[in-house]
């Protein structure tokens, strides 16, 4: 298999994985499917777009060499997307979790509320920015570099390495910090954690900020190859949800495996002459259905009844 194709598949898997892991984390910890994840993606993309307009002249004035100005701007845009996503997570927590988390049918109610937040956010972005697509500066690298005799795209390499670093730091935080230990306890058994004095209300906030930050980072990384628009989060939301289901809702390793699998399916489908990009979604859903028929629990996840 061509090295460029493998890199492209891993690049897609990295971005889809950030979305799917956020959805799985939220479900396994608080029992909530966040349909506003796409809105978080779009808002973070626009936040990075505005930050690029403001930071670019300042950075270029302060740092005259492109070798240093582009990495600096890339870090600033990534941090902007992460912060914007975390803020969206706080808003969703205040609207869709805090008022109803102890009410009957919380999962259904939160699903409807987050769907409403998503629709309202898309309309607000259309009203404020208009339907025109925006682009971010190519600050994560332009062109190709040669590694072991293979020409590989720089922006895809940076995206994969950034995703690995962020997920590694998140895993370290979940394993080493007290808050991470509380979050893991809630993920394993919410009722048992409550009996131990761990508040679901308190742990839900950092979880939603974390998952929102993942969506924000995914928006900035993907916006290097696609445009920012009010509806930019629709496809990542659908793919994040389906990958989370493929991996098994609540399973982070399953979400990672599902993201890599779907990344390879999309990359390979795109180069098949009689299929191409037109049938990517069809093939992806066919693969997901086939896996779920053969293994209803997904690639390694938890079903709703196993949580109970």
Automatic annotation (TrEMBL):
Its membrane topology, per UniProt?
Multi-pass membrane protein
* Top-level taxonomic group: Bacteria
Any idea where this protein resides? Cell membrane
Q: Which UniProt keywords apply?
A: Amino-acid transport, Cell membrane, Membrane, Transmembrane, Transmembrane helix, Transport
A single Pfam family it belongs to is: BPD_transp_2
Q: Which InterPro entries match?
A: ABC_transp_permease, BCAA_transport_permease
Mark the transmembrane ranges. Answer: 6-27, 39-56, 76-98, 110-130, 150-174, 204-223, 243-267, 279-298
Q: What is stated as this protein's family in its record?
A: Belongs to the binding-protein-dependent transport system permease family. LivHM subfamily.
Give the protein name, as stated in the record.
Answer: Branched-chain amino acid ABC transporter permease
């Amino acid at each position: 298999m061509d090295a460029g194709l493998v890199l492209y598949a891993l690049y897609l898997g990295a971005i889809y994985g950030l979305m799917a892991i956020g959805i799985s984390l939220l479900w396994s910890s608080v029992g909530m499917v966040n349909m506003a994840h796409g809105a978080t993606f779009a808002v973070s993309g626009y936040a990075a777009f505005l930050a690029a307009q403001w930071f670019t002249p300042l950075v270029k004035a302060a740092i005259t060499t492109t070798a240093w100005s582009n990495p600096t701007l890339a870090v600033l845009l990534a941090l902007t997307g992460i912060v914007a996503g975390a803020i969206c997570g706080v808003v969703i927590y205040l609207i869709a979790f805090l008022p109803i988390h102890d009410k009957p049918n919380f999962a259904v109610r939160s699903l409807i509320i987050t769907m409403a937040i998503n629709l309202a956010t898309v309309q607000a972005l259309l009203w404020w920015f208009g339907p025109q697509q925006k682009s971010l500066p190519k600050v994560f690298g332009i062109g190709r570099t040669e590694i072991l005799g293979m020409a590989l795209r720089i922006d895809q390499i940076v995206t994969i390495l950034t995703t690995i670093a962020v997920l590694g730091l998140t895993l370290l935080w979940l394993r080493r910090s007290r808050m991470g230990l509380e979050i893991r306890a809630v993920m394993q058994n919410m009722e048992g954690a409550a009996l131990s004095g761990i508040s679901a209300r308190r742990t839900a906030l950092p979880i939603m900020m974390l998952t929102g930050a993942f969506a924000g980072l995914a928006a900035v990384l993907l916006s290097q190859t696609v445009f920012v628009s009010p509806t930019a989060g629709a496809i990542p939301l659908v793919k994040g949800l389906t990958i989370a289901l493929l991996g098994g809702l609540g399973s982070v390793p399953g979400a990672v495996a599902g993201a890599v699998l779907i990344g390879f399916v999309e990359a390979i489908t795109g180069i098949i002459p009689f299929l191409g990009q037109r049938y990517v979604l069809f093939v992806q859903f066919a693969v997901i259905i086939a896996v779920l028929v053969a293994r209803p629990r997904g690639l390694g996840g938890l079903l709703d009844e196993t949580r109970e």
